[in-house]
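thought: fold this chain, then report.
action: predict
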Amino acid sequence: MIRYNADWLVSRDPRPREIRETWMRDAPAMLRTGLHFEAVRLAVSVVGVVADSGERDAIEDAFRAAGIENAVIADPYGRWFYVLVPTGTAGEWDIPGIHVLAADHYLGVPAPHRADPPGTHWLLCPPQGEEDLADPAALRRLIAAACARVAAGPAGTPGGVNRAEGRTVGAEGVNLRAHPAT
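observation:
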């Protein structure tokens, strides 16, 4: 089993002991965003469009093909992915349908060893330092690829709306919804 060091994730938090104890109980710990990272929340459907599948291997491959190798949390209950990006990039995310947890928000971060369901887990490895956070440009490429696929529509049809799957793309950008947003 690979062991990941959580020191970087908790190094600026005023309660590192509490966080580690929560992780020892195999529960997600609430970490404040803006200290080391911000988080971009993506609906599972956004990545699923690019992956052509909801299967884990295909989803991981879609992230990696876009240049995202680490720092992705899966929340299967909410059907979200949280992609950890460098602090200070929240202002750059003005894409409709994309929500950013910037400074002074809290995110349930799974224990570094939690790589599988059930529950919140790391889809891609937890960051060991700032260099392991996702590149915002790579994440934008992934979102753009999802928009392009949905805009093209199902094979053989003009783009815009795929009513059968409940996904749409507006003129302003992405609003991929396979389920209602919470």
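thought: worth noting. The chain has one domain: 7-175.
final: tokens above.
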